[in-house]
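Instructor's aside before we start: the two examples that follow are unrelated to each other. I chose them only because their records fit on one page, so don't look for a connection. First example below.
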Amino acid sequence: MDYINPTLDFDDLGRTLRTQGRVQIRNFFSPQVVEALERALQAIDWELVYRDAKGDRRLTGEQLRGLTPPQRMDLTEGIHAVAREGFQFSFFSDSLVHAVHQGRSDLLARFMRWMAGDEFLSPMRDMSGDPQINGVYAQATMYSRGNFLTTHDDHVDREDRRIAYVINLTRRWRPDWGGMLHFTGDDGSVLDTFYPHFNSLSLFTVPQRHFVSYVPPFAMGERTAITGWLIAAPKTGQGT
């Protein structure tokens, strides 16, 4: 079975990516693949990821369910306090890298292994014009009410990230529910916005300033995706 839509014009898409630094590809996966991914994400017991004064933090689903209302309020206020001063994120995650390292055999772990192979990486190298891409980092993500990701450029010294990607798996969404991927200029202007169309693949070069807009309390859904980076690293590195 073909994972990727065989009708896509990768030459044309690659020209857009190389000249503009970003491209969104509609209907990227075959219907069977994207529907299986959608079902797999619906079964995740999500973990909340965010930052506090000491660094990155992760709360399991069990830990979140055990919080009292005052503890939830304190958690939210702590997240907002960090956001007032600098970079912050608050969304739900399931690491596919960890799934592979733990030897899981579920669909998402198998999908991560597929992404680390040439059937996916070869067209990514061709489109980007970067022959050094040879690994992938992936996580399932969910943005629900109150979640956001502040402006940053994805550069990390210890990881050779070349291309960031978002595989959108949300069927029903509205732009006023937030969760938009916005690209910004040096003066703060929003230069471009990617809507999370179901079965679209967003690609953009690293570094590039962007953010995910706040999901307001009135949003009636969750924005789900598989996100990460295409990296240049030995096959034994973190991304495989």
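Example two begins here.
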Amino acid sequence: MDHTFVSALVLLLLVLDPFGSLPIFIAVMRGVAPERRTIVAIREVSIAFGVLLAFMFAGQSFLNLMHLSERSLEVAGGVILLIIAIRMIFATGGEIYASDGDREPLIFPLAVPLLAGPSAMATVLLLASRQPERITHWVAALTLAMVISGILLLLADRIRKLLGTPMVSAIEKLMGLVLTAIAVEMILAGLKRYFFDPL
């Protein structure tokens, strides 16, 4: 399944799931001093961006090192996305990552695995390995997706007050439904390449 810049951006936004991350972000940041929240959010988004960027550029080398084919990565990535999509549709989300409330979060749980989770890592790995000649497009799509996610997380309280908890939950479930279709498409594409395309 080949992607364009726009489809890659949409896929990354669905995988990063900034709307679904709002209740988790608010719960984790509750113990952080208000004047530190913006700094912490920018720091955690930057760390997540660095992790995903590393996975994107090391993708092909990782596949070669582990003797993995793009077909297996596509099916595995689709399965992971499907699990994440099902969680988005059925889980409540706010209690997924616990926080002790006394310590400023560093890397866990905001950067990893909230933003740079297994599904996001598999997605950037797959994008880079399937179409390495368009790596600049994928870097740009990832950068824009992380900026959008960062802005949404910074505005988490305002967004929840503006839209209300039921609307945020409905948007997350809708994104989960779209991501389910994308995950199934990835699995089918990987199986098709395995059974019908030459090695």
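The CA atoms of residues 141 and 156 lie 22 Å apart.
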